Amino acid sequence: MSINFTPDEKRYIAYFTRLDKPIYRWGFYSAWLVPILAFGSYGLLRQDIVALGMAFFGLLFFTLWRIASSFRSQRIVASILDKVADEKSSPAAPRE
Fold first, then answer.
1. CA 31/CA 25 separation, integer angstroms
2. Average pLDDT along the chain
3. Mean pLDDT of 16-27
4. What pLDDT sits at residue 89?
5. What is the dihedral of CA 37, 39, 40, 45, to 10 degrees?
6. Alpha-helix residue ranges (DSSP H) falling in the chain
7. Helix axes 49-89, 22-46, angle to 10 degrees
8. Average of pLDDT values for 45-74?
């Protein structure tokens, strides 16, 4: 049984097999979200429209980036799953 994955698919599979602990993902997201939330909080407390605008656009950028990333990942995952499903449904080649 050998599935011919593309380099993108292999990279995606390798990425998810290397994920160690959820704390690393929390650290990554907090590096993005803590400054945005700080700007938003400052803007609300000081009624500073510039800080609120920066927080809004930061959250907008972060959200659009995550949506684009999920669409990109969805194509790769669908391709991987199609290949696995095709491999499972095809009759096994006779062994010599």
1. 10
2. 84
3. 73
4. 74
5. 120
6. 7-18, 22-46, 49-89
7. 160
8. 93
Long-range contacts (CB closer than 8 Å, 24 or more residues apart) made by 10-15:
12/73, 12/76, 12/77, 12/80, 13/80
pTM above 0.85, yes or no: no
The pLDDT value recorded for residue 96 is 47
Q: In the chain, what are the domain boundaries? A: 19-88
In our burial notation (b when 16+ CB lie closer than 10 A, e otherwise), range 15-42 reads eeeeeeeeeeeeeeeeeeeeebeebbee
Q: What is the CA radius of gyration of the chain?
A: 21
With tokens 């993902």, the residue in question is 25
